[in-house]
């Protein structure tokens, strides 16, 4: 593909991605995790340090990235969405770039190649690439990415840097230059700065790929060691910078506790769910409800089956990958499995998948899928001369079902017209939020208000302050010491209002965190404190408005 064609494709992809994503980004969806990132970024702009001044078990990258956007464009909901839009567009472009690089080295069957003149071989190979699946990874990254989890998130940020790392790693393998491996080390560490487990896992996969390549190609050992040293050097440089920054700000011990010790001892147990959780529980009923509006029941069920088929395909990626590797080994005698670009994409994709499996619900499967899906598209294309008719049918099915899914997923967002004037700009929501109206009418800007247990986005939209260090406060997730600390802070600061979200009771928490066990009533310390120090003033939607006695 010529340089002008590549730029045309990239610009067109950026435009189409922006046009599609804007349909979703204009709406505030009830994804409560977004408030964690947004409030953390706002607190950084106001001079606070993560972990030292506020508690989260999310790596600092997303907080500081959004804080940078806030300083550049101002603190507003629009800034949050601009940041997310650029993350989405760049992610799709990088996936497409990786795909093009991968497919540019797609070999033709060796027997056919030997019988062709070089000119004829290049022509046929070029024509076959048009038939290939090389544009499907970008399509799936767009449709099954941010639109399924519309919020500022460390998952999207860390994935963006994972894709950048993969692209740079492919270039480094090709060039063999130590400076390229040094850049890979930097972006690998930056990936870990957004999601702590992804950095070390990516580094492990890069070393694994390099060992395989060096073992097979028998390259010069001195050059290999220099490349590894450069990779570790870039990784260590970022790690040292982060460590020194938090050490100088008296937050290094808090950083280690929040990002290492706490997730292992508390969060991982609470976060365990069966593989694919939320697919049958939430996604399928959602699609069936939409289909039922348009079709009678039998047709609605059939239509839902077509729409969810690419989602089922994505959930089975590891098994499909093993199956296609076996089929390629058996039928495609063209060096597919020894392509270094493919091996790198496959191994980094597998480790990206593993890094997201700390919670194995369907949304984390979508976070984990892009690179592995790219490798599978490559494996399918390598069989184009063996099973041409079957592959054509698979390609048509994957494209049509994905486009249908993307179209109907956009309908609810497109139909949202309700506007709310928050203190961070106009937002659109699918339903009226009376609690936000209450905040705007009854609380001054920067007034301390405690929202319990879990609605951090309200702090941001109402521009009110959380008097505690905890954007979320939940039994089983936080320790007794942390809950007692939050209560002591509330006793000392005497916030006038507590907004108690009654909908997020033990039943709701049990439905989200399957290992959640509500404590007995005598150990519900927060509720006992609220009952002792506050009285009910009124009810506002799902919230109880409590005022200090």
Residues in helices, as a percent range: 55-70%
Distance between the termini: 72 Å
Strand order of the largest sheet: 3-4-6-5
Q: Helix tally?
A: 24
Order of helices and strands: HHHHHHHHHHHHHHHHHHHEEHEHHEHHEE
State which percent range the strand residues make up. Answer: 5-15%
**Quick one: how many beta strands?**
6
Whole-angstrom Rg? 25 Å
Average pLDDT taken over every residue: 88
Q: Report the uncertain regions.
A: 110-131
Descriptive notes:
The protein is mainly alpha-helical and 549 residues long. 67% of the residues lie in helices and 6% in strands. The chain contains 24 helices and 6 strands. The strands form 2 sheets. Strands 3-4-6-5 form a 4-stranded mixed beta sheet. It has a two-stranded antiparallel ribbon with strand order 1-2. Helix 4 runs antiparallel to helix 7, helix 4 runs parallel beside helix 18 and helix 16 runs antiparallel to helix 18. It is globular, with a radius of gyration of 25 Å. The N and C termini lie far apart (72 Å). About 4% of the residues have low confidence.
Features:
two-stranded antiparallel sheet; about 550 residues; four-stranded mixed β-sheet; mainly alpha
Could you give a short description of this structure?
With 549 residues, the protein is mostly helical. The protein has helices spanning 3-25, 33-45, 61-73, 77-104, 110-114, 118-131, 136-143, 154-175, 178-194, 198-217, 221-248, 252-270, 279-294, 297-315, 317-331, 340-355, 362-368, 370-381, 388-414, 434-442, 457-462, 480-493, 506-512, 525-533, and strands at 418-422, 425-429, 449-452, 497-501, 534-540, 543-548.
């Amino acid at each position: 593909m010529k340089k002008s064609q590549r730029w045309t494709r990239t610009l067109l992809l950026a435009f189409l991605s922006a046009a599609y994503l804007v349909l979703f980004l204009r709406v505030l969806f009830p994804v409560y995790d977004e408030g964690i990132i947004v409030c953390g970024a706002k607190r950084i702009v106001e001079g606070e340090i993560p972990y030292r001044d506020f508690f989260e078990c999310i790596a600092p990258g997303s907080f500081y990235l959004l804080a940078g956007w806030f300083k550049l464009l101002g603190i507003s909901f629009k800034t949050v969405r601009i940041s997310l839009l650029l993350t989405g567009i760049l992610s799709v472009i990088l996936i497409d770039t990786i795909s093009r690089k991968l497919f540019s080295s797609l070999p033709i069957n060796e027997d056919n190649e030997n019988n062709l003149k070089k000119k004829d071989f290049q022509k046929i190979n070029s024509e076959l690439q048009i038939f290939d699946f090389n544009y499907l990874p970008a399509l799936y990254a767009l449709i099954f990415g941010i639109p399924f989890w519309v919020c500022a998130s460390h998952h999207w940020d860390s994935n963006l840097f994972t894709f950048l790392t993969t692209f740079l790693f492919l270039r480094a393998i090709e060039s063999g230059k130590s400076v390229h491996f040094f850049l890979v080390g930097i972006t690998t560490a930056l990936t870990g700065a957004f999601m702590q487990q992804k950095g070390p896992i990516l580094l492990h996969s890069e070393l694994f790929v390099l060992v395989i390549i060096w073992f097979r190609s028998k390259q010069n050992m001195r050059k290999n060691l220099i490349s590894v040293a450069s990779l570790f050097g870039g990784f260590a440089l970022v790690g040292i910078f982060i460590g020194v920054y938090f050490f100088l700000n008296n937050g290094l011990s808090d950083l280690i506790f929040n990002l290492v010790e706490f997730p292992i001892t508390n969060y991982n147990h609470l976060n365990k769910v069966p593989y694919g959780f939320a697919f049958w529980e939430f996604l399928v009923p959602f699609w069936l409800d939409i289909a039922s509006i348009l079709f009678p029941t039998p047709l609605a069920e059939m239509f839902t089956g077509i729409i969810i088929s690419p989602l089922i395909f994505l959930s089975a990626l590891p098994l499909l990958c093993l199956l296609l590797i076996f089929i390629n080994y058996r039928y495609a005698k063209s060096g597919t499995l020894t392509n270094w670009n493919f091996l790198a994409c496959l191994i980094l994709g597998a480790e990206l998948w593993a890094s997201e499996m700390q919670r194995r619900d369907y949304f984390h499967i979508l976070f984990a899928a892009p690179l592995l899906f790219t490798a599978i598209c490559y494996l399918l294309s390598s069989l184009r001369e063996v099973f041409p008719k079957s592959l054509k049918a698979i390609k048509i099915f994957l494209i049509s079902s994905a486009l249908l899914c993307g179209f109907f997923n956009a309908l609810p967002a497109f139909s949202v017209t309700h506007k709310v004037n928050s203190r961070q700009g106009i937002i659109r929501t699918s339903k009226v939020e009376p609690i936000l109206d209450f905040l705007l009418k009854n609380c001054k800007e920067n007034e301390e208000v405690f929202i319990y247990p879990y609605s951090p986005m309200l702090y941001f939209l109402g521009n009110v302050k959380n008097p505690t260090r905890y954007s979320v406060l939940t039994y089983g997730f936080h320790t007794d010491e942390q809950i007692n600390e939050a209560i002591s802070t509330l006793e000392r600061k005497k916030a006038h209002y507590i907004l108690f979200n009654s909908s997020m009771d033990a039943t709701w928490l049990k439905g989200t965190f399957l290992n959640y066990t509500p404590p007995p009533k005598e150990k519900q310390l927060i509720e006992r404190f609220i009952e002792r120090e506050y009285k009910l003033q009124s009810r506002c939607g799902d919230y109880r408005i409590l005022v200090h006695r």
